[in-house]
Design brief:
Helix content is 32%, strand content 17%. It contains 23 helices and 30 strands. Strands 4, 5, 6, 7, 8 and 9 form a 6-stranded antiparallel sheet that branches. Strands 2-1-3-16-17 form a 5-stranded mixed sheet, covered by helices on one side. Helix 2 crosses helix 9. The longest helix is centred in the N-terminal third of the chain and has 33 residues, at 2-34. The protein is elongated.
Length: 851
């Protein structure tokens, strides 16, 4: 008996020792692990990854950027039904335990001991999952599990249950790039959380366990089994009754992808926003949840997209069918579904869908689209080619088709449902030419619309900002304005006659007119209206190339981009369409150089404004410190790729001439001025910032008057269809018809259209700006100027009304002639000239040596 007592005593001592040793081990492990635990208070300020949102000026969504779909919600925005579904399947005792569910842990330990599985279900509460999601790796080890449990206990002491559940619902991954329950509800059902049914809530709750392999799109059957189990648990926990459970289980699975709808289509602008936000805020801007509002007008943007697309298609149809894009060797037994697979990765472009020809004959052709839909093309579908489809395509050819809906005639009975529109399919092709359209407010530089090409899906290259093309005759207004500054007037006579320039190496340059004819002596106004090349060359020769380059640089062009020779009179500089638009804005706004911009406001994820645009603007009647004809320095504002984004850090100012005194009204309102004499104030004050003056406002007025004549009686007469007296502009074409332009203004807008080929090949004979570009401009401006007041054209001080003869000479008052407006300082010179009759004889060819 004593030996038994001794044995029991030693056994008790051993057990006690092991217990103490275990306790010491656990304590040591606790202190070692707990010392490394992160501060859970940081979860209160955690920033979930959110995409970059881009909106049009009216707040409609224009684009979403970022790999992560996540729309964080507050816990009080989550319906009880949704919370109950997650609690039922993930952690039924969530509101009862203190971070660790000891029953679940015991069950997990038992399964580990009684099965051969290395991973067993149960044991992890919602709190532990949050701890793992935010702070720990997914490594499966006892040390990590212990750290997870300690962190869960710490979280429960410092955070409320609702805070923990909110973190879980916003952080969990639901497959298909959807993070958080709000993003999952939108993607799978196209709904907000408060619109979800019981069945849909149960489906969402079942996803986080198997987000990739068990979501309702990739594996609907597995998702259905999980959904039903969620509703069983909800009924067992008293959240729903049996009737609701039966109804939910009887509902068919109906989840499908729902991308957040883009309400305003402007992909080129959206990409510009993305690039500029990265330049401004860094590479992680796509995960910070910024909300960017742009200056884009949705109605103007839609009109620009439609007019450019229709104009390029109309141009392309003039040159007939260009043939199939490519051809596949289809097997004899290859069906429509197999053929459709060949189109994978081939995007639709501006409504033109790719299709594979399955059959061609008997005047028709049968094609299959990428989604497996088969369409029969008849003779009407290819009427624009004047040939039947069977004469154009063969089996295996890849072609483009466009779906057209024609509204059906409404029934006489108002109570009857509206009939479905009639659907037809037209044979099409991708245009051989490309183009761009840019429209902006000329007073502020705010972009209203921009389209960088026929299709962003086809090519991301933005021709509005990246293509450098020769403007041709569209550059002449800059030459003529330099001449007006030098003392020429709109009535000045310059011969449209042959001229030869002899260069150093013995070559002769004989510039000519597009029509090959000469019209003799003519006024500058008429020369611009009729786009006479030789007049432009002679004018530039008279005022001097060096002077003209310096003067034209005030419009915002880099002087180094302007060739130092007479060829610039014919528009040889390589410029972006946006540069040209900016230059024409100077004419329209009274002589001020504004900077194009397109971001009006940036807010962070909390709705706080982090940037608000306050750009420099034109101010008719205001001075801005810089004198026309003198270099004008860059304003002190943050500029990325030529776009005004906001105030930048001050830079060292280059020495500048003393500015002329500003008008009293301006100096009274001046807080500070930069080297341009621009009034600068903080954006928060919303004060007016005057843009730098580029040219004399009188010259700007004269040029607007002359460019209105281009529309009224010159190369742009087609624009008279707009029936507006305030419309003006200039056509532009280059050698061999490689570029076609129309740049003009009306209302409060200046708009540029360019058409050309990316490979710089010819557009085709007689594809002038008035034929290829102007119709696009007219279609757009017809929409943009609707209900817009006319462009102001009040004559500035310093312009004198005079009568001039056909020979450009000043006539006495009341003696007839045509009314013209000239600068006051030019009047004395005109008065000294005697009108001895207008000699319109063709002058002989002149020869000049160029040294």
């Amino acid at each position: 008996m004593p030996s038994l007592k001794r044995l029991l005593r030693w056994l008790a001592i051993a057990i006690l020792g092991l217990g103490v040793l275990g306790a010491l081990t656990l304590a040591t492990l606790y202190f070692v692990v707990s010392a490394r635990l992160p501060d859970v208070q940081t979860l209160r300020d955690i920033e979930m990854q959110e995409p970059l949102y881009v909106y049009a000026s009216d707040g409609r969504l224009m684009a979403l950027f970022g790999e992560t779909r996540r729309y964080p919600v507050q816990i009080d925005e989550v319906p009880d039904q949704v919370k109950q579904a997650f609690i039922a399947i993930e952690d039924a005792r969530f509101y009862d335990h203190h971070g660790i569910d000891y029953r679940g842990v015991a069950r997990a330990v038992w399964l580990l001991a009684t099965t051969s599985d290395q991973r067993v279900p149960g044991g992890s509460t919602i709190t532990q999952q949050v701890a793992r999601q935010f702070f720990l790796s997914s490594e499966y080890s006892y040390t990590r599990k212990f750290a997870e449990m300690l962190l869960a206990l710490k979280m429960e002491r410092e955070l409320s249950k609702d805070e923990i559940l909110e973190l879980y619902l916003n952080k969990s991954f639901f497959g298909n790039r959807a993070y958080g329950v709000a993003a999952a509800a939108e993607f799978y059902y196209g709904k907000t959380l408060d619109q979800l049914t019981l069945e849909e809530s149960a489906v969402l709750a079942s996803i986080p366990k198997f987000p990739s392999s068990g979501n309702p799109i990739t594996n609907p059957e597995r998702a259905r089994i999980r959904r039903d189990y969620v509703m069983v648990r909800m009924r067992e926990l008293g959240y729903i009754d049996e009737a609701a459970e039966r109804e939910g289980k009887a509902t068919a699975m109906h989840a499908r992808p729902h991308e957040r709808p883009v309400e305003v289509y402007a992909p080129y602008v959206a990409e510009m926003v993305r690039q500029e936000m990265i330049a401004r805020y860094g590479g992680d801007v796509l995960t910070k949840g910024y909300h960017v509002t742009t200056t884009i007008d949705p109605r103007h943007q839609a009109a620009a997209e439609a007019s450019l697309r229709q104009g390029l298609v109309a141009y392309d149809h003039r040159y007939g069918w260009s043939g199939a894009e490519q051809s596949f060797e289809l097997g004899a037994d290859e069906d429509a579904a197999t053929a459709a697979e060949r189109l994978r990765g081939m995007p639709a472009q501006s409504g033109l869908r790719p299709a594979v020809v399955l059959r061609s004959g008997d005047g028709t052709a049968e094609v299959v689209l990428a989604d497996g839909t088969t369409v029969t093309l008849d003779a009407e579908s290819s009427a624009w080619t004047r040939r039947a489809p069977s004469a154009l395509v063969e089996r295996g050819d890849v072609v483009r088709v466009r779906r057209v809906e024609t509204p059906a005639q409404a029934p006489d009975d108002d109570a009857a449902p509206a009939p479905e529109p009639e659907v037809s399919w037209l044979l099409g092709q991708l245009p051989r030419a490309q183009g761009t359209i840019i429209s902006m407010e000329y007073d502020t530089g705010a972009l209203h619309a921009l389209v960088g090409g026929f299709s962003f899906a086809g090519q991301k290259f933005n021709r509005a900002t990246q293509a450098r093309r020769q403007p041709g005759s569209a550059f002449k207004p800059f030459i003529f304005s330099a001449a007006l500054e030098k003392g020429f007037t709109p009535a000045s006579i310059v011969p449209d006659a042959p001229v030869v320039f002899r260069m150093r190496r013995g070559q002769d340059w004989r510039p000519g007119n597009a029509d090959g004819r000469f019209m003799g002596p003519m006024q500058l106004r008429n020369a611009l209206a009729l786009s006479r090349n030789l007049v432009s060359v002679r004018v530039l020769d008279a005022i001097g190339v060096d002077y003209a380059r310096r003067y034209i640089s005030h419009f915002g062009f880099d002087e180094s981009e302007l060739p130092p020779n007479l060829s610039i009179s014919l528009g040889t500089p390589s410029l972006t369409p946006l540069d040209v638009t900016r230059g024409y804005a100077v004419f329209a706004n009274g002589g001020f150089r504004v900077t194009p911009w397109f971001i009006s406001e940036v807010r962070d994820r909390n709705g706080e404004v982090v940037f608000e645009a306050n750009p420099a603007q034109a101010c008719r009647g205001c001075g801005s410190g810089a004198r026309p004809g003198q270099p004008v320095a860059q304003a002190q504002r943050h500029v990325v790729d030529g776009f005004n984004f906001g105030p930048a850090a001050p830079a060292a100012a280059a020495p500048e001439p003393e500015p002329e005194p500003a008008p009293e009204a301006e100096t009274a309102a001046t807080d500070a001025a930069d080297e341009d004499g621009i009034v600068l104030r903080e954006a928060d004050d919303a004060e007016f910032i005057v843009a730098p003056r580029a040219i004399d406002e009188r010259v700007a007025w004269q040029m607007v008057s002359m460019m209105r004549d281009v529309v009224q009686r010159g190369t742009g007469t087609a624009a008279r269809a707009l029936k507006r007296d305030d419309v003006g502009g200039k056509t532009g074409s280059t050698n061999d018809y490689r570029d076609a332009w129309f740049v003009g203004f009306g209302g409060d807008l200046v708009t540029t259209v360019w058409v050309g080929r990316d490979d710089n090949r010819s557009l085709g004979r007689r594809e002038y700006g008035g034929r290829a570009a102007l119709p696009i401009w007219i279609d757009y401006m017809g929409v943009a100027l609707e209900d817009q007041p006319p462009m102001p054209h009040d004559r500035p001080e310093g312009l004198v009304e005079v009568s001039v003869s056909a020979g450009g000479r000043l006539l006495p008052p009341g003696s007839g002639g045509r009314t013209e407006y000239v600068k006051a300082e030019d009047l004395e010179r005109m008065a000294a000239e005697v009108d001895d009759g207008f000699d319109d004889a063709m002058p002989p060819e002149e020869v000049f040596d160029i040294f």
